Amino acid sequence: MDFEDFHQDLSSLEIISKGDKKMSVKLKGVPLQYSNALRRICLNGVPIFAIDTVDILENSSVIPDEGLAHRLGLIPLKTDLTRFNEPTECDCKSETGCSNCKVMLVLDSGDSDITRTILSNELISENDLIKPISDKIPIVQLATGQRVKVECYARLGRGTEHAKWNSSNISVLTETNNEDERILTVESTGSLKPEEIILAGVEEVNKRLVEFKDIIGNLE
Question: Looking at per-residue confidence, does 207 or 212 come out higher?
Answer without folding.
Answer: 207
